Amino acid sequence: MTQIRPKVFASLVLRRAAGWLLAGAALTGAPLAGAADFSIGVGGGADRGRVDCVASFPCDRSSAYAKLYAGYQLGQTIDLQVVYFDGGSFKGGDTTPLGTEFGGKFKVNGLGLSAGYRWAFAPAWSLGARAGLARVRTHFDHANPVWGSASQTTTQPLLGIGIAYAITPTIRLGLDYDMTRFKVHTTRGPLQMLGLAAQFSF
Fold first, then answer.
1. What residue ranges in 50-186 does DSSP mark as E strands?
2. Is residue 122 over pLDDT 70?
3. How far is the C-alpha of 148 from the C-alpha of 142, rounded, in Å?
4. Contact yes or no for 36/202 (Cβ under 8 A)
5. Which domain covers residue 10, as residue numbers?
6. Long-range contacts of 163-168 (CB under 8 A, 24+ apart)
7. Strand partners for 189
8. What pLDDT is recorded for position 15?
9. How many domains are there within the chain?
10. Domain contains 145
11. Which of 56, 67, 102, 120 has CB 3.0 to 4.6 Å from 85, enough for a Cys bridge?
12. Cα separations (Å) of 67 from 84, 96, 124, 171?
C-alpha cells in the first residue's frame, strides 16, 4: 500500500480545505453584515519537536502537522476554541541508566481548549493570540521491536499567535504559530507548529 508522507498530507488537506471554504462562500451569496457566532477551520504546515538524540540512531526533529478546530465567538474580540492536532512523528533516542543507547520514533497528537483575543489593526486584517490547555498524547516506538513501545498522555499549556486576512466576513485565511509540550519516558520538550489556516464562520 502506498504511504502518504506527513508533509504531503498536510499540503493536500490545506489546499482542499481552502477550496471547500471558497466554494462555500460562493454558495452563501452575499456576505453577512456582522460577525458570526460559530466557526470551523483547518490548518497545516511544518512543525518541530525537541527530542533527545544519540549517536547510534538517526535523529529527525522536523515533521508536518495538521489541525482541525471549532470556535464560538463571545464578542467582537474574544472567542473559545476546541482544537485537535496531529503533530506528526520525530526520530530520537536516549540512554538507559545502565548506559545503553536506544532510539525510535515519537508520535504526538492532542486535544486542546483555548481562549483567544483578536485585534483588527486594518480593514480585513487582524492579529490574534490564544492561551489554554491541551491533553497531549506521545507514543514512542523503539527501533528495536523487542523493546516494544510506550505512550504517555499529559496536560500541557497551549499557546498561539496568528495573523489573518478576511476574504469575506465569513472566511479568513491566516498564518498561525502554535506551541505546546510533550512527554514520554524521560523525554520532554516543546512542540512548535507553523502553518496556514482557513476558517469559515456561520
1. 62-73, 78-95, 101-122, 125-142, 149-168, 171-184
2. yes
3. 6
4. yes
5. 6-201
6. 163/125, 163/126, 163/127, 163/128, 164/118, 164/125, 164/126, 164/128, 164/197, 164/199, 165/124, 165/125, 166/124, 166/125, 166/126, 167/22, 167/25, 167/124, 168/25, 168/31
7. 182
8. 52
9. 1
10. yes
11. 67
12. 6, 34, 24, 17
In a domain, 1, yes or no: no
Of residues 202, 199, 188, 201, the one with CA closest to residue 67: 199
- Reading the block at residue 45, the C-alpha cell is 504546515
172 inside domain? yes
Number of C-beta neighbours around residue 194 at 10 A: 15
Q: Is 79 helix (H, G, I), strand (E, B) or coil?
A: strand
CATH for 39: 2.40.160.20
Does a structural domain hold residue 133?
A: yes
- Cβ atoms of 116 and 78 within 8 Å: the answer is yes
pLDDT band at 173; cut points 50, 70, 90: very high
The set of cell numbers assigned to 173 is: 485565511
pLDDT in tens, 72-94: 999 889 999 999 999 999 998 88
Beta-bridge mates of residue 166: 172
Q: DSSP string of 26-50?
A: HHH-SPPSS--SEEEEEEEEEEEE-
